[in-house]
Structures are given as C-alpha cells and as structure tokens.
Amino acid sequence: MEHTPVLLPEVITALNPKPGDVCVDGTVGGGGHAAELVRRSPGGMFLGIDWNKNAVTRVREKLTALVDREGLAVTVNVVQGNFSRLEDIVREELSGKRVDCLLLDLGLSSYELEEKMGFSYREDAPLIMRYDEDTAGLTAARVVNEYDEKTLAHIFSEYGEERFAGRIAGSIVRERRKQPLYRTGELVQAVERALPHGHHSRRHAALRTFLALRLFVNKERENLESALAALPRIMAPQGRAAIISFHSLEDRIVKQALKLYGPPRLAASRREAGSGKPIRPGPKEIARNPRSRSAKLRIAMF
After folding, report:
1. pLDDT score for 161
2. What does the pLDDT read at residue 4?
C-alpha cells in the first residue's frame, strides 16, 4: 500500500521551507511530507524522527535516494525516537541549531496498518498496538485482559470519547472470562455485542475503542503534550510549526497549546490561518484519499 501524505500542499504552504532552513518532521511515517521539505530547503538540514524502526529504515533509504537522484544539497538524517523527547533529540542531532520548519502528523501511516500490529479494526491481527513493536511492554491485549471493568470504561471514555464506554467494558470482561482476547477480531465482536439493539452509526462500532487503546498504550496524549511544550525552546525566531490531528481529543490539545504562542500569522490555501479554525482537506483530496477526511491542520509562527 502506497502511503499518501495528508494535506501536503497546505503543509508546504504553511511551513514555507526556504533555502538553508532547518526542517524537522517529528512523525516521519511514510516520508511523503519529508520528501517535499527536503526538496524545498536546498543548503539546509532535514531531521526525521519516528518511533517505528521500520519507518526509519524505509524513509532513510527513500530520502537518500531522492537526494542522490535529484542532486539536492541537503543534509538528511532520520532517527528512531519518540517525539515526547523532541527537545533532546533536536539538540543531540542538530548540534543546538534552532528549527525553522516543524511538522507533526499524528495519524497512522499506511505502512503501520500493513504491519499487522492490531491498529486496524478491519483486519484480524494480534492485539499489540505499539508503534515500537515492543511486545514485552504494555500491549492492547494486556489492557483488555488484565485491567478491571472500571478502568477500561475510563480509558474508552477519556481517550476515545466513547459514549458506550461502560457497556463495552462490561462486554469485554464477560468475554474474557470465557477466553482471553488476543486478536482484533475478538475485540471487535466484544464491542459489537455491547451496543444497544438497533444502534446504527456511520462510524465503525469499534472505532473509538481502538482509538482509545492506541492512545493509551502508546501514551500519545502525554507524548503530544511534551512535544508541544518543547516548541518555544527549539523553534527559531519566525519558525513555523504545523500539526495534523485526526480526532477531537488531540485537536483540542493542539489548539490550546498553540494559543500560548500567539495567533498564527501564516496564510494557507482555502482559508486564512488567523481565523482560528483548522485547515481541512477539500472534497477532491477526500475522494482521492478517504482516510484524510478527519484531518485537521493547525499552524503557528514563533
């Protein structure tokens, strides 16, 4: 599956990379945004960061080939790391240089869905849900099989904003008494059994449960808060930051954090960024890439 970067023209317009700029992609994923940042910052530096070692290897090879093929005079480095350590990684890898352009894309890449780590409710796979693939650490299977009903309900409500959190937690506990839940298909069935008879929604029944588990297992909310708090200390004067979120919990965190840095002063296609509303994909992009539908881009200048 080829990864399609979300809101690519809008991100490039917002970040406006220039010759000599220091650019950082804190969630390099499939490398789609990264490639354009590298192309547009000749004489500069690019640092890509990702928690997933396979993504790091893949994007390092992709960008090295791009630089060689197009004769780009850009220093490229891609490292494995969690953006919760954004400040430390930037200082270590950039030798104290400040960042001109920074991107955080908080969505799953197509490659992560392909790796059968249990992120998707549409395919049967082991219930792992870890970006770093460390099955010795906390996994989604451990959460659903070991946490008590009250804690599960809290996780589904707090992290997934699931209205039937209590019912779903109860169903999971009943099902695991019969046999442990180790696969995504088993979890989906437990969720579906919990919903009221006749309940219908345009979203998949297990979407919010899977979202909640993914955020909880990987500490994504806490990691995002740490990364956002580091921005004033790593961004250059007039530096630009762009953050793409895919659900309301993360968007609220981003919106509140960026308010601290003053109103954005960058124009972006389809609207003026200073309006305070996020930039959303247009109908053409959604038709071409349906997974972009829920994307929200917020930007700020420092």
Report:
1. 94
2. 83
Contact 13, 37 (CB under 8 A): no
Question: Which tens digit of pLDDT belongs to each residue from 31-44?
Answer: 999 999 999 999 99
Q: Are residues 46 and 173 in the same domain?
A: no
* Annotated binding-site members: 31-33, 50, 83, 105
Determine the Cα–Cα distance for residues 106 and 221; give it in Å rounded to an integer.
10
Q: Dihedral of the CA atoms 139, 143, 144, 145 (nearest 10)?
A: 90
What global pTM score does this model have?
0.90
In whole angstroms, what is the distance from residue 229 CA to residue 87 CA? 9
Range of the domain at 129: 116-218
Does residue 198 carry a pLDDT above 80?
A: no
Report how far apart the first and last C-alpha atoms of the chain are (Å, whole number).
37
CA–CA distance, 7 with 29 (Å, rounded to integer):
15
Residues 135 and 16 in one domain: no
Using DSSP's 3-state secondary structure scheme, residue 239 falls into strand
What residues are designated binding site for S-adenosyl-L-methionine?
A: 31-33, 50, 83, 105
- Four-point Cα dihedral 111, 69, 76, 21, nearest 10: -110
